Amino acid sequence: MRRPLAVVALVAAFTPTVVCSRAQNPPPRLELNRTGETIVLEPYAPNILRVTLSLQRESALATPGYGVVAAPDAAGWSASRTAQADVYSSPRMVVSVDRERPAEPPPLHTMADIAKYFNGSTPNTHITIRTPDGRRLLELTGWAQDELNFKSGTAGVEHDRRPTDTQFYTVSATFASPADEHYYGLGQNQEGFLDHRGHPVHCWADYTAPAAPSFCVPFLTTNKGYGLLWDNPSKTTIEPGFNEQTRWVSEAGNRVSFFVIAGATADEIYVGYRLLTGPTHMLPKAAYGYIQCKQRYASQQELLSVAKGYRDRHLPADVLVVDWFYYTKMGQMDFDPRFWPDPSAMNKQLHDMGFETMISVWPRFVAEDRFYAELREKGWFIHLADGTPLNGLPYDRAGSDIDTTNPDAAHWYWKTIHDNILSKGFDSIWADETEPDLPPGGAYFHIGPGTEFFNVYPLFHTAALYDGFRKDEPDRRALILSRDAFTGVQRNGTIVWSSDIYPTWDTLKRQIPTGLNVAASGIAYWSNDTGGWQYLPAVHHPDHPPLLDPSDARDNVAGYDDYPELYTRWFQYATFLPIFRTHGSRLANEVWSYGKQAEPILEKYLRLRYELMPYIYSLGYQTWLSGAPFMRALPLDFPNDPKVADLRDEYMFGPAFLVAPVTDQGATSREVYLPAGTDWYNFWTNERVKGGRTITVAAPIDTIPLFVRAGSIIPLGAPVENTHQVQAIAQVRVYPGADGSFTLFSDDGTTYDYEKGAGSVTRLHWDDAKQMLTHDGATSWSEADSRIVKIAGD
User: Which of 68, 115, 203, 700 reaches 20 to 30 Å from 715, CA-CA?
Assistant: First the structure.
């Protein structure tokens, strides 16, 4: 018979206890020493509280783990006591920790019987967090710090630590889950869900996850006015909304530690997340344009030919990417002179054409390369307990991963890349395999056991590169494309992408909620490989006649009859991602590579992306200020509309655009739900539609359904071929129906001077009653407003 978990908790509560004592320590925290446990409440702002529970007092008092950079701040907090609870409160939160009570007989004799053979690891603990007006935000109903054991299937984890390492426990916390509570975030899970309620989340980096590669950012937001950041980097399983509760379980730790951020809006929650984990720095302006990549450009001649193809066609593009195998061997940090005879000259030529370049650098080294012996001697690889570097043999022969949790190894890694690769004129780094690709469970980092710190590598690895940029390249912004993320990675100048996905309609459909949950995790700059990364099948016959003729693209798409259609629909969607980047394992991957019917459609959306550049770049500035992502699941902006709680195929792109990609092959229309509380405009036709209803929208192959919220102000730019060119404001488009505001930002696009207040800020405001646009601050256009400002519907 399996023991009922609720019974175990009740029996634990009836164990004889002594009256709790409150530690008489001053701010910045309240410590409660109860029988067998220590509870610490530590504020970071009036609306941010860290809660820590442990069976060991020193663990409960320890500082937060990796990813958190904020310092505690107890200003405005005060402690009090009632007959029922210890209370810690601020103007934004009231936290009640139930007091211990004398043991009472269990209400049912069967509970006492069960207690003869089964028990839990921790005392009964109950913590409730409310707003000052009494609205419940979060309720912890229990926690555990279990010793590793065979019954729970955790005994084997004991072998993943050395005698000198801290003792491992399985740690967990259980929270009440109202039926109408919904959960968003938790990193990257590609199974196609938006609301995590009712779907277990395995929160760890897993390249072989069932749907597609996953990674963990243990931060979620809810529709109940709070966000929760779980402070544990080991493999963690979240069970959201099962049995009217949500449970977090981490494989290794010695405490339960989490942060609660209260927020009246989603933006306020992200302001709190920014405070805790760091800002999302602005990227080089080129990163907001178009990034052209494929697997792979095999020579500098080929790369220059692609650049010439874009410029000869006068198509906008900003970044060209050099993928792997440019080197003579993995980890050699060189260029094969047969194919890359003069990278410096190539980059100068590309820069003169208005392109920047990104290059892939793996963290792996094979025994035959020039650095392996030195790295092994210094112990700078992720390694086994005896010091042997971890490898992937027999099937993976790409060598061992450098351990960038070691500050000396991290500094060496940056310097080696800087001196051997960036010195050739490359502008940015593609940090591939940042899981790391060789899973660290059972191995060891410099900072400790890989099982305990399973998810932290992306944070340390991208920080090694970002910190190097800030120190040695102070006049340019860092740009790092990372395959994975963890808490705080957004402060390292990163773009994260969804890894090596398949070129299928199903994958395209699942990318939408995947990206929305990554963004909800506080990672604003997410992207995917437009068109999918994996190789195309030799033959693929669609269920419906292809909307684009593949016959003149057969050399590229082979027998995949509907691939030009799929790529075009994917490209339309990618136009409205924070990062617009194409990639894939196809013979050619430029906009002219998918047939004459596809080409003008792809060009249309490429030009539209640059027309929207003033709007998009200004969104990046707002994200730096607030930490809030600008690609957002609809529940973040419309939390009171139940119809959007799990709406997986629509999203907001900034405050103005509702994007509804077409993800069904052969479709020329689709249903679109327009959230309640506002009117909407069809971007293509200017038709005004009342919100709160579902409509059928025409979607011929050259059209993605796109709507604009009433009250929106959208600055549009003049045609340019790259973001280094000066782009004039060609039009400011206003959509009447509500008051609205927008902050237009512009600067040099390359330096961090914006952190010191540099750049121009123009505040735009639409008064709907007066039907008038006003603006103050910097002058952003020279022509008369009557020529620039256009009112939709006029």
Answer: 700
